[in-house]
Amino acid sequence: MALPFLHSTPEAMAVAKQGQKPDKKLVFMYIPNGIVRRCFFPGEQEGTLPGFVGGFNADKTKNQKRKQNEPGIYPLELTSTMQPLKDHTKDVTLITGLDRTFKNGQDVHAQGASCYLTSLSPVQAAEQGIRHPNGRSLDQVIGDKVGDKTALNTLEIGCNGFRAPKEPIEFDNISWYGPGEIAPSIRDPRKLYDRLFSKDSFRAHVADVSDLVLADARSLSGKLSGEDRETMDEFMTMVRDVEVRMAKLEKLMANADVKVPKTEILPRGEYIRLQADLMLLAFQMGITNIATFMIGPERWDATLMYEGVFDKPVQHHNMTHNQKGNGYLGVQKIDIFHMQQYAYLLKRMKEIKESDGSTMLDNSLVTYGAALGDGATHQFYDLPMIVAGRGQGQIKQGRFIQQKSGTLNSNLWLTLAKLMGLEMDSFADSHGVISDLWT
């Protein structure tokens, strides 16, 4: 297992002498089933509740009266759903006005997930002679260019604990190597841990990977500075903590009532945060710099345990279609729960120091968004989007950017690609960059 960056090693001294910056990191965090938009977007809290638009397609949403953005940059004021970000207001920017190109031809939820990072609908793909799902997703395109520094070009992570499929695979993945070639997300924390830290050849001989590393760390500690010893202690504590948490969840599932599907009672928050910490360990050790992170699968109608929110498991997707009266408040509780997990990730990234003394978040770009603007209407416009991190000083944070309504989300993807150092003029159906993001 690789170790975090230590200043007093010969390799670190050579890096410092050359004035090299830490590698940039990029995370795409995806939330399923849209959001309660009136609680997410500024100025809409007292807006009219949307009516349900169901069915296989979403063409009916085209006829709805849309709120038109007044383009500009405004102070960031947290809405009720965004309150978990109160300690990170200087680290995030809210962007509104983004649309996902949509044409009828595939279920809106499946298209939402599978097209999220490709920005090409199934019909558009057919028109261009591209077999759906439509080419290489943005994370893979960026990984092609910057992944030569790491063991893995990209890392795909999911937080869907169900083992038995409830939906086709495109509902549960956002990363694609190419047409019909899915980059499957790793949903089992144990499998993700083994992918990052061990191989079968020695896993059978080592109870915990950290046992092996601790032995090396003890022999190394006498050669390290005080600051590096502290870094090592923090790193090993995090690895041990991950192992303890993993064992706890595995025991919980093993002891579950056989009448209840084991994965139904898996606490969502513990599970998501464990997956997030495994991703951060991969960043720290230089295993990868690019990750997709699905906080949950699209639709599925799976009952999930949102601990601290509801007394028993609930179905998120089903709830999004029952928002009349005060029904939307229950859905908003899940929106807030998801936002809390995003806030946790940002907090952890601010705590992790990099080689030059900056934080991991200083050197990262972390997006948070959905492919549906509102779960009740299946709308593919006004997508929720937050961008965190400074990208090594390239982004000015703490703002609310209203784009002109109808701006394609592929413009944001092109912007992020350029911020990651790629020289490209377009991505999918983009027609420019979001210049307001740049400092």
Describe the structure.
The structure is a single chain. This protein is α/β, with parallel strands linked by helices. It has one domain: Alkaline Phosphatase, subunit A, CATH 3.40.720. It contains 13 helices and twelve strands. The strands form three sheets. The protein has an eight-stranded mixed sheet with strand order 2-12-3-11-10-1-7-4, with helices on both faces. The chain has a two-stranded antiparallel ribbon with strand order 5-6. A hairpin with a 2-residue loop joins strand 5 and strand 6. Helix 6 runs parallel beside helix 10 and helix 10 packs parallel to helix 12. The longest helix has 29 residues. It is globular and about 60 Å long. The two termini are 37 Å apart. About 2% of the residues have low confidence.
Q: Can you describe this structure in just a few lines?
A:
This protein is of the alpha/beta class and 439 residues long. 34% of the residues lie in helices and 13% in strands.
